[in-house]
Design goal:
The protein is α+β, with helices and mostly antiparallel strands. It contains 3 helices and 8 strands. 20% of the residues lie in helices and 44% in strands. The protein is globular, with a radius of gyration of 15 Å.
């Protein structure tokens, strides 16, 4: 089963949401809903419940809750604090923990791109993240990754998006 590439795709979704904050137009602080859709995520409904629990446990190892996955899309809620929205360096949701980092980051107007480079025992490979902050309350983009996750070959891409939901966040939901 392709559960490890799925977990990487979910991690990349959070990564894109974090980097959308780097655009000249700032993200609006508060509660955001961030999503990724891909062909791989369409397979989630075929994963047995015990394997989904293993995926959820893996996500927790990387410091986040398993997003809701339905109809080929993974959706999660993330709190962007005013400090995160104002900074030029986006919050680090996971990439250092997974052995990945963003390199060659650039932005032109409200378009952002970065290379994702992973070099750890668990994740090894390269990817690309691109996003456009459409308004202070929404972004859209895409991610791609080619490499391996725990020795399993991965060559995946996803469309990503985010939308602002509310000015306040539930307690304990702030990003790292």
């Amino acid at each position: 089963m392709r559960k490890l590439p799925l977990s990487l795709m979910l991690l990349m979704t959070l990564h894109m949401g974090a980097h959308a904050a780097e655009n000249k137009m700032q993200m609006k602080p508060g509660l955001w809903e961030m999503s990724a859709s891909s062909e791989l995520l369409n397979l989630v409904e075929q994963i047995p419940p015990n394997q989904m629990q293993n995926l959820s446990n893996l996500a927790k190892q990387y410091g986040f809750d398993m997003p809701k996955i339905q109809n080929g899309a993974a959706t999660s809620k993330v709190c962007i604090t005013p400090e995160m929205a104002a900074q030029n360096i986006p919050p680090s949701f996971y990439h250092r923990q997974s052995g990945c980092e963003a390199r060659n980051a650039s932005r032109v107007d409200n378009r952002y791109s970065a290379d994702l480079v992973c070099n750890s025992d668990q994740v090894n490979g390269q990817g690309k993240a691109e996003a456009t902050l459409n308004t202070p309350e929404s972004f859209s983009g895409k991610t791609s990754f080619k490499g391996s996750v725990r020795g399993v070959a991965v060559d995946e891409s996803a469309n990503t998006s985010g939308r602002w939901l509310a000015a306040s966040c539930p307690v304990g939901k702030a990003a790292n």
